[in-house]
Amino acid sequence: MLFYHPTFAKKSLKENFSKLEWEKDPDPFSKWTRGLTGYPMVDAGMRELWETGYMHNRVRMIVASFLVKHLLQPWQKGADWFLNTLVDADEANNALGWQWIAGTGTGSSPFFRIFNPITQGKKFDPDGEYIKRWVPELRGVPKEYIHDMTEAPSSVLNTAGVELGKNYPYPIVEHKEARQRALERYEKIK
Questions:
Q1: Please, what are the domains in the chain?
Q2: Which of 6, 80, 132, 189 is most solvent-facing, going by the fewest CB within 10 Å?
């Protein structure tokens, strides 16, 4: 792809995506990079990346989808972050992955496919072991609530030592609202 499309690592292959209205506030991107989104699976992946320089492919897809579709940040920002933090970073593979998740490249995931980080966590980390390894402040949370702190009763959070908004953040976006916002933005450029 890079041979035939030298700008592939920086420019969406599908031209209409250059018109997508991205969010301009840098704070969500900063929270994403530090693993402070309030979505445990996303936070675990981003913290693992920062600490080890590596992240499992499934988690890469989850965090990438979250950045592009929940936070409406340009895929290029995520791609640059991955290139600067992954020890196995490869420019071509990185661009293909990010353009796939954003729906902007070849063989792309459809724009309307938006990973739900809560259900993805439940499916691929059902007991929360991965989350508890990388998000230590959630180690005392039972597996029934580990994927969504907002569903946990206050008694469970108290027992686990979790204070939302203090030692673990509230979700920075609400999944259903963020999904709808992304679909509306993508629909405008379809």
A1: 23-190 (1.10.579.10)
A2: 6
